[in-house]
Every structure is written in structure tokens, then in C-alpha cells.
Here is the input.
Amino acid sequence: MFRCEKTRKLSAAACHYGKVLWAIQPMATRRSVGKNNVVMPAQLSLDAEPSGQSGTGKAELTTFLLVEDDPNDVLFMQQAFNQAPACIRLEAVSDGLHAMHYLEGLGPYANRRTYPLPNVILLDLKMPRVDGFGFLEWLRAKAPREHRLIPVLVMSSSALPEDVQRAYSLGVNSYLVKPVDWYEFKERIKAIGIYWGEHVKKPDVRSG
Here is the structure.
């Protein structure tokens, strides 16, 4: 999903469309997570540049990788980012194993124009196959060295102290507990989009 609300040199055509890649299945299956599960074509931002590559006066695009197995939460994230006044691209995968493949560029994720490296990872903990903890262990110790710098924000329904402690010990940058209230959840996501999309300098994680 792209979301650009910059008014600076950005046309309406470039700023007002969305894309969510729900990568449960391989190949370039692009689906919205709406009620009809409609297949959507890939769309590319015309006036935004990947984070870390700006310098031409164009809006800086921040790519978030959402690792989440609940399609409802993916939809909530999309809707909240749509309301954030930042230039955002959201990619979504359904578990830690898909996230590993995404970062390594395996299979369909080899096309970095379609599946760009993320500037920020939003990570759920309780997932099938490889959970959030397993992904964190891999990311911080076994992933390609430049990818280990990617900021990770845990977004979990668990407020257990042992989960919080373990996540921070594995190198997360923030731990957020998902609120039950939809409005509160939406406002937190918007704040994340604004903070990481506009105010934070992210590391360059592209392979040299």
C-alpha cells in the first residue's frame, strides 16, 4: 500500500491510491483485504523516492513490512496508514518465514521493484510456523548483515512481562500492545506512520 499525503510537488494521482500485498501465497498474488478480496494490480509511486535516497526535493517514501497473520489487523493497518500525513508504502506477509524470504529476496520476493526492502518492520509475535520471536532471533543474528539494522516495532496483543523482556532482549526498538478499542488502535498506527515516516532517520539497508 502506498500512501502519500504530501502537498509538496505531489499530484493527486500519485498520492491517492493504496496497495496491500497479502503474501500468504507465492507468486505475485496481490489482494486487498476487503470483504471481496479483490485482486489489485501493482502500482508504483511517481513522485516519491525510497527512504534514504531523497535529495531531489521529492517526498521520501518509507516502506513498512507488516508481519501479521490476522487479515483484519492488516486491514486496520491499511486504513490507519491511509489517514497518516506521511508518504508510506505498506507490504504485508503472514508469518515470520515469509518475512525471512521477503528480506532474503527469495522466490517472488526477488523483484525489489515490486517487493522493496523495508525501512521499518511491524511485527506480531503469535504466528504459525515461525513466530515473532523466531524471526527476531534470525534477523538480529543470521540475516544479511545490513538487514540486521532494520528497526523493528513489535505490535502484539500480549502484555506479558516475559514477552516484553524477551522481545527487547532480541533487539526490538519498541513494544506496543494492541488496544482493544479501534479508535485508539488507529490513532497509534497513524502516530507510528508520522513518526517513522517523517521524523526518524532510518539506516540504509540496501545491499552494497
Notes: The beta strands are 2-3, 48-50, 59-67, 88-93, 120-123, 152-156, 174-177.
